[in-house]
Amino acid sequence: MNSCISFILDQKIIQIDFSKELKLTPTTTVLNYLRSLPNHKGVKEGCAEGDCGACTVVIAERDGKNKIHYRAVNSCLILLPKLHGKWLITVENIKNSDGSLHPVQQAMVEYHGSQCGFCTSGFIMSMFALYKSLLPNTRTVIEDALTGNLCRCTGYQPIIEAAEYALQKRKPDHFSQIEKEIISNLKRIVRESIKIKTERQKYFMPVTVTELLNIKNQNPDSIIINGATDIALRITKKHEPIPSIIDTLQIEELHVIRKSPDHLYCGSAVTLNQLKDVSKDWFPAIYEACSVFGSKQIREMATIGGNLATASPIGDLPPVLAAYNTEVVIVSANDARMIPVDQFICGYRRTSLKNGEIIKGIKIPKPVNESIIKFYKVSKRKDLDISTVSAAFRLTLDKNRKINEIKIIFGGMAEMIKHAEKTEKFLLGKIWTRETIEQAMPILRSEFTPISDARSGKEFRSIAARNLLMKFYDELADT
Ligand code: FES
Ligand code: FES
Does 281 lie in the same domain as 182? Predict the structure, then answer.
């Protein structure tokens, strides 16, 4: 049993053997690991739930073209074994070898982007990942990269200006010089099955789907994790000692993205950032949903499979996937099947997965030209927030504006994502006019009994749902 993980930190290969470790466990977060070291205390803990970005670090790894890809992530949500085969970069590594500041640090100084400094190392790491990317220097790109970092004293304008300035001066830095050496060191770390067993916990990292299914059969109570941005909260907030975990991170088959002429296939471990990028042309409503999903740091880790498996009634992805007629690809040791997303989720945090089955991926059919698909999210703020209500619509009209197909799917209105079935039935075959929509309103009102909670009252939810249908109508009327 290999209970050892290896990764690069401070340009050295670090090995952690959990069978010999007294202080670290497989569910120790990268944040707590770093804070336990004498020379990596620049990383800060603010919320320990992925909301503030004070704990941002960069994880770099080889991409398919043997280049290094840098991602800013929330170290408070990352479990230590997930570092296996990766390069961990912290704020202590950013300055140049002669002691001078990296361009992103220098820009923060020149533009007065820091006051108390508690948030600053997190901002620096997000800006550094952006600096190392090929993304353009636009306000939208910068705001998206910094959405997951909160600052309570400086104000965002100087920080955004610092990022703009640093990106204008983008050029190879000292990381560019060591990438070759890092790549050869990363190659020395073998992608192999890891099985960590401590007195209280088991943590498996299989490398194939077959191995994953075997482990799951032998350990039926194990939790399967992908990005673990949700499950990690049980560790950081509820302090649960999760006894058995199967981590799919190393299974290449689950990271596959394949575009065919009539559909897109994504493995269940594809991240929401990858889904966002790949859906821009064919599935603009998915692109829209992913754009307002958490923060960039969260989307770098959170996966399609994780979002579906949690079956949250306010999950943003399932309604829009359902509008695109997405099917979930499920496999077990002896079988494989596909099921529409809206049937896959079958109750409050319940899915139709049977014992021994896992989510292998999703298949999204390319919509035929005349279908119009839109996604809307109502939340207290635009970014990094949980939906109060979300809605996805799919509409096909004939040349006389008769409704040939209508799908209306809400999140946040019931114990699970739900179609407005009676409203759909009423609208089908009618002419798409404002009057028709107004006639549908009482039906829509009657078929949901949303709850009141910390995010909103039930009456607000009910009104918001009706307004979203009207918004959908109005937007199409304007085109
Ligand atoms: Fe707030 Fe990690 S500590 S996002
Ligand atoms: Fe104080 Fe940002 S400088 S929180």
Answer: no
**In this structure, which long-range contacts are made by residues 63-69, counting pairs with CB atoms below 8 Å and at least 24 apart in sequence?**
66/183, 67/179, 68/132, 68/175, 68/179, 68/182, 68/183
Is 48 a pocket residue for ligand 1 (Cβ < 6 Å)? yes
Q: Ligand 1 centre from 75 Cα, in Å?
A: 7
* Residues 268 and 358 placed together within one structural domain of the fold: yes
> By the 8 A CB rule, do 240 and 262 touch?
no
- Could you tell me the residue range of the domain that residue 118 belongs to? 103-172
pLDDT of residue 478: 56
Half-sphere exposure of 161 (CA within 13 A, CB side): 11
* pLDDT for residue 479: 58
The number of the ligand 1 atom at minimal distance from the alpha carbon of 297 is: 4
The closest-lying atom of ligand 1 relative to the alpha carbon of residue 52 is 1
| Pocket of ligand 2 contains residue 153 by CB under 6 Å | yes
Proximal ligand: closest to the CA of 232: 1
Is pLDDT larger for residue 66 or for residue 285? 285
Q: How far apart are the first and last CA of the chain?
A: 61
Domain of 46, CATH number, reads 3.10.20.30
User: What CATH code is carried by the domain that includes residue 118?
Assistant: 1.10.150.120
> Do residues 291 and 209 both lie within one domain?
no
- Read off the pLDDT of each residue in 359-374 and give the average, rounded to a whole number: 94
Residue 187 CA to residue 318 CA, distance in Å, equals 37
For ligand 1, the distance from its centroid to the CA atom of residue 49, given in whole angstroms, is 5
Atom 1, ligand 2: which residue's CA is nearest?
A: 116
How does residue 455 score in pLDDT terms, banded at 50, 70 and 90? Answer: confident
Shared-domain flag, residues 309 and 374: yes
- Each residue of 133-153: pLDDT tens digit? 999 999 999 999 999 999 999
Q: What is the pTM of this model?
A: 0.95
CB atoms within 10 A of CB 406: 22
In tens, the pLDDT along 288-337 reads: 999 999 999 999 999 999 999 999 998 889 999 999 999 999 999 999 99
Q: Which ligand is nearest to the CA of 75?
A: 1
Tell me, using a 6 A CB cutoff, whether residue 114 lines ligand 2.
Answer: yes
Q: Is the CB of 147 under 6 A from ligand 2?
A: no
Does residue 51 sit in the same domain as residue 160? Answer: no
Query: Which atom from ligand 2 is nearest to the alpha carbon of 153?
Result: 1
